[in-house]
Amino acid sequence: MSLVDEWRRTVFEQAVADLRWAKERETNVVQWALLLYAGLIAIDRTLEPLGWVLVALASLELFVVLYWIHKLNLFRWTTRKKIEKTIKGTPAVGFVGPLSNSQDEGAIYVRVKYGVTVIAWALTVISIFWPTSNSTTV
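-> structure tokens emitted (138 positions)
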């Protein structure tokens, strides 16, 4: 194997590791978002009702989470393009192959994360304004 092929293989392996890293970060962002939404609901249930303040915090969190998921997805997309260029430029493609779905699921994977985040936000807002048994209504 020539030095150029070894370099291309190294670039390919690093790009695949980058894809894995970005996917794990996307999952972590969504998990932390769900945890923070639960925290906002707990604050609403234990303290005096803050209503719109908590909705504003939940909305701010929604936009930050969607921004991070978008940026990580953009990073994955550019990394994917780098891998495709590396594979095309390699005369002997025996050591690499097309990326499998386990390495990058693509658009469906990201849409599910967007959906989970937005649904969790909606449920948080509903829960904040949902009357509880200890709330005083007139």
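The mean pLDDT is 79.
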